[in-house]
Amino acid sequence: QVQLQESGGGSVQAGGSLRLSCAISGYTYSGYCMGWFRQAPGKQREGVARIYTHGITRYADSVKGRFTISRDNANNTVYLQIHSLKPEDTAMYYCAARRGRAGMCWGDYYWGQGTQVTVSS
Fold first, then answer.
1. Cα separation of 49 and 32, whole Å?
2. Most exposed: 1, 12, 32, 65, by fewest CB within 10 Å?
3. Which residues pair with 50 in a beta bridge?
């Protein structure tokens, strides 16, 4: 059973930075696409960043240039480095994983419990 656990959220001022971490355990880390999603109150869940098994990344337009996703396969961890935070970035951030290979992903998502990011103006 794949398990994911997020950390690194908190309350920051607009313009600040955070580094979110997601530790994955249970199954082999390699062979999974990893992503970060967020959900604000009253909003639908939004995919903000994804990284594939070959290292290619994709970002939502709203976060391009500010968010960077990376993965450390040796430590079974994926990161989301966030700069220039805006109040509209306030949300619960979730880490997710599903099977993948060479830019293709499939199957059900495994989800973490979420970490809260709150940005004040």
1. 14
2. 1
3. 35, 58
